[in-house]
Predict the 3D structure of the following.
Amino acid sequence: MNKERLINEFIELVKVDSETKFEAKINTLLQEKFTALGLEVKEDEATKHIDHEANNLICTLPGNVEHVDPIFFTCHMDTVTPGQQIQPQINDDYITSDGTTILGADDKAGIAVLLEVIRQIKEQDLAHGTIQFVITVGEESGLMGAKVIDQSLLQATYGYALDSDGAVGSLVTTAPYQAKINATVTGTAAHAGVAPEKGISAISVAAKAIAKTKLGRIDEETTANIGYFKGGKSTETNVVVDQVDIVAEARSLKEEKLEALLDHMRETFNEATNQYGGSAELNIDIAYPGFSHEPSSQVVKVAQLAAEKANLPSELIESGGGSDANIFNGYGIPTANLCVGYENIHTTKERIHTDHLVNLTHFILEIVKLSANKD
């Protein structure tokens, strides 16, 4: 293990601007790095489908042993904002930014670790099956790159995302289904002072519907939230508002619970419009599928045994958030999300301890070794 090389590479990566949608520079650099390591690097055609500068990368390391399952590891190359001109620094073995930007450990810590893993595989001449390294764009803008990836380029039987907070060695084995709801409530405009009785206030109808809608923590597996509500104009208090737009979300670890919640939302809006007038249109999009892996599944057993061999504690985690792992599971490739050890992500206080980079590298190497074991 070359700790200094690993840390330097991580610092190099975070210095490259790559806010989501603007991944061209980091994409070019990563193509150079994976190609220099002897991998076959392919780009898909993501830019034809989404508003991003760069495509997803699928980098393949051919196996040197036969008759073992091909596996994959995935990270995303984009970051949230503010992520320009990041100035990383090390204090007490923690890597941080200068406090004016994010750090970008989410998810460049994972990428740096994967590059070091490849070097270790080659330097130690480790036995391994075919391994793919899938580096996506647009994860931070809604898993967009993974959603449009060219699935024909994927060979893996199972794999791992490196994209969760938490202690290295632990893994997310359960994550929710999520739906996005765009609702429009339509009423009838009228003069609010002269003839309000001739109008139907879309604001009032929407408010009555929302008041009857289950929101917040619904149960231990299910949540819902109104994120946006807009209607009328601040300069027109004398108008009965005839349209309101609402954007909401719903999540559940159980698909049937999510469907029941969405049915409930439809019912509350229909009831409100039936009672008070107007109309409501709800457009519902399943943003991503959920997943749940049993402890006995191959993807979990390999990871937990690898953590044990790397002397790392391992916890199986249920998450309330989504990641590219949700999308790959939806493609039928069992994928768990590994904890990277970064902290305070999506803030200017983001940081990662150098030991976490080292431990995660050991962890991934043990997964590689175990995946090549035919027994």
